[in-house]
Each structure stands twice: as C-alpha cells, then as structure tokens.
Amino acid sequence: MAAMDGGTSHERGKFQFSLDVPFPSTREAAIALRSLSPDREPRKGGISKELTVSDRTLSVRWVAEEARILRVSVNSFLDHLSLVVETMEMFGPPVSQ
C-alpha cells in the first residue's frame, strides 16, 4: 500500500505532496523509477517532481505553486504508475541479469 503526505508547504505558500510506493523487490522499484523518470512536467514552471528509490520503495515528491497544477500532475503520475505496475504483473517478476 502506498503512503501519502499532502499539504501546504511552509516555503511561501507552495503546495507539496509525497507518495511512497512499496514494491516486492528492489529491482522492480528500480524498473518503475526508470519507466517513470522520463516523464517531465509539461510546464516549465510552477511545479517540480523528484523521484527516488530506497530499497524496495519508490518515493515521489511534488512541490507546486497552485493546487490545480499539483492535482493534474499527481493524477497523471498515478495513471502512468498504474500502467507500469500492470505491465510488470503481466510479464511476471524480472529475471536476474
């Protein structure tokens, strides 16, 4: 189950949201990171997104100037994350290299 933390940041009224997504293995968390990292935010300003992996957990942190921009970015990310997870489930666990 994913852990979430949302709210208003203390840095000049910006909105922030954090999401931790556990995976069955470190390798699957790394695959998800590589699959989701290329998706840059379409806007040049107003929002930033940081993805990291620690052990079996993919962590994502957004900081946005407007709640609407944050909502759109998080929703889009969750759609992509769902597709990545479904694809990994369909093809089975990754094989060792």
UniProtKB/TrEMBL annotation:
What is the protein name given in its UniProt record? L antigen family member 3
- A single Pfam family it belongs to is Pcc1
Keywords on record: Cytoplasm, Nucleus, tRNA processing
Q: Where in the cell is it found?
A: Cytoplasm; Nucleus
Give the quaternary structure: Component of the EKC/KEOPS complex composed of at least GON7, TP53RK, TPRKB, OSGEP and LAGE3; the whole complex dimerizes.
Family from the record: Belongs to the CTAG/PCC1 family.
GO terms under cellular component? cytoplasm; EKC/KEOPS complex; nucleus
Give the source's domain of life in one word. Eukaryota
- First-listed, main subcellular location of the protein, grouped into a coarse class: cytoplasm
Q: What does this protein do?
A: Component of the EKC/KEOPS complex that is required for the formation of a threonylcarbamoyl group on adenosine at position 37 (t(6)A37) in tRNAs that read codons beginning with adenine. The complex is probably involved in the transfer of the threonylcarbamoyl moiety of threonylcarbamoyl-AMP (TC-AMP) to the N6 group of A37. LAGE3 functions as a dimerization module for the complex.
**Keyword Nucleus assigned:** yes
Q: Which InterPro entries match?
A: CTAG/Pcc1
